[in-house]
Fold:
Amino acid sequence: MINNFWFYFFITPVVVSIIALNSLFVHKSPSTPVFENALEYCQSVDNNYVYSDQGTAQDICIDEYMNAPWTLELVIKIFLLFGFLFIVPLFLYIKSRNS
Structure:
């Protein structure tokens, strides 16, 4: 069973999701970003350069700064979902090999 391609095909996403789950608990997401910190972080960005649909370049920088933790958590949760979807086929594969 361990030398079979399908075993590794099903176990790889499960292991990746376990690692992603571990990273959610070990590396706590940073606290909610503070707007004053975003202003300090983006002060070097030109505020006179205006995009017609998104505001100034500094506005875009502040938006990216404020949304960074949420984006990382979303990626980790996608890995978790993908791995958990493979748990059922992995158990079915193991059960069929042991029968």
About this structure: The chain is about 70% helix and 5% strand. The longest strand covers residues 50-51. The first helix runs from residue 5 to 26.
